[in-house]
Automatic annotation (TrEMBL):
It comes from the Bacteria. This is Methylthioribose-1-phosphate isomerase. Keywords: Amino-acid biosynthesis, Isomerase, Methionine biosynthesis. Substrate binds at residues 54-56, 97, 204, 255-256. Its EC number is 5.3.1.23. Gene3D superfamilies: translation initiation factor eif-2b, domain 1, Translation initiation factor eif-2b, domain 2. The active site is at residue 245. The record marks 165 as: Transition state stabilizer.
Length: 359
């Protein structure tokens, strides 16, 4: 599917063109705009694992197309063999990253499509898979629009908005999730400013959020992660909006490491704390935040900065990429169907009854 980038200077986050998967390499931003052609299953797995495509919704879209790429060399197989390979390759792609549920959500949709498709040969089944991947992509754009529409009224003239990591256009194929209300308010002419946490260790806030908001003409100020509580204490933040990688059935949610500390600080200072959450990130299979697997990444992301060691040799380091925030610290979930308030388990199940029953 041909996609339009949000900013004229950028390539789209993900593009499916003439049967090829093209990804904007997010590890090179903001200095270089490099589009990678991801040509086989191993390259898809690596692109997700190494965060060249990242952000829960973008991972979901990339996985749909990625499974098509992974099956391209199997199109001449007898259909039963194609189906068996599909299940195997989908299960393997699902191991690329553990926390963002969009990865397994998208791959489950793709394998379900294949199981329910009565195509007579592998080539026809492959075409049905591409159609489903395009549907996932189109839906992602619409989910972001819906979050923007419902979240925009949360931002008032003169507000300070704080966000963490990148839950922006680069993390999706549309307006972003946490950034969708920001872009919608900006387009509506509301004047406000955004504080973007730099987001150690991989600096998604500095490299991606600050970059895309600046490109869009939004008033954005980059701060160190450690400065967020102090900025709140000075009365400069009226609302916190973050994205999420997985929302458990009870409303506990995982997001980039540092989110929990922000939620605690926001509660201390009486600042509303919202989570932008498309239905593709709801996980009714997971009862509470305790059941969410947290990705632990390489220690070198902590001991090194821009390729240079900054810590002593042989120091022990930990690098959990995400944390879990308990639902009690959440003011509301901004979804494509409206804002969900406590009690979250009941409200989420009511608004997303179809998704919950299908889970
Ligand atoms: O490790 P990343 O960059 O994939 O982490 C991304 C985040 O934590 C985002 O906040 C989350 O995926 C929501 S993206 C709309």
């Amino acid at each position: 599917m041909d996609s339009q980038p949000l900013f004229p200077t950028l390539a789209p986050t993900i593009e499916w063109r003439d049967g090829k998967l093209l990804l904007l390499d997010q590890t090179r931003l903001p200095h270089e705009i490099v589009v990678e052609h991801v040509a086989d299953a191993a390259a898809v797995w690596r692109a997700i694992h190494e965060l060249r495509v990242r952000g829960a919704p973008a991972i979901g879209v990339a996985a749909g197309y990625g499974l098509c790429v992974a099956m391209q060399d199997a199109r001449a197989l007898p259909i039963a063999q194609f189906r068996a390979e599909l299940e195997k390759r989908a299960a393997w792609l699902d191991t690329a990253r553990p926390t963002a549920v969009n990865l397994s959500w998208s791959l489950r949709r793709m394998t379900k499509t294949a199981r329910e498709c009565n195509a007579q040969d592998a080539a026809a089944l492959y075409d049905a898979l591409v159609e489903e991947a395009v549907r996932i992509h189109r839906e992602d754009i619409a989910l972001c629009e819906g979050i923007g529409e419902h979240g925009m009224p949360l931002i008032a003239e003169g507000n300070g908005v704080l966000t963490h990591c990148n839950a922006g256009a680069l993390a999706t194929t549309g307006l972003g999730t946490a950034t969708a209300p920001i872009y919608a308010a900006h387009r509506a002419g509301i004047r406000f400013n955004v504080f973007a946490d730099e987001t150690r260790p991989l600096l998604q806030g500095a490299r991606l959020t600050a970059f895309e908001l600046q490109q869009a003409g939004v008033d954005v100020t980059l701060i160190m992660d450690g400065a967020a509580a102090s900025i709140m204490s000075q009365g400069l933040v009226d609302i916190v909006i973050v994205g999420t990688d997985r929302v458990a059935a009870n409303g506990d949610f995982a997001n980039k490491i540092g989110t929990l500390g922000l939620a605690i600080a926001a509660r201390h200072y009486g600042i509303p704390f919202y989570v932008a959450c498309p239905s593709s990130t709801l996980d009714f299979h997971t009862a509470t935040g305790h059941d969410i697997e947290i990705e632990e990444r390489s220690e070198t992301e902590v001991t090194h900065l821009a390729g240079r060691r900054i810590a002593p040799e042989n120091i022990k380091a930990r690098n959990p990429a995400f944390d879990v925030t308990p639902h009690a610290l959440v003011t509301g979930f901004v979804t494509e169907r409206g804002i969900v308030h406590a009690p979250f388990e009941r409200s989420l199940k009511r608004l997303f009854a179809a998704e919950c029953n299908a889970a």
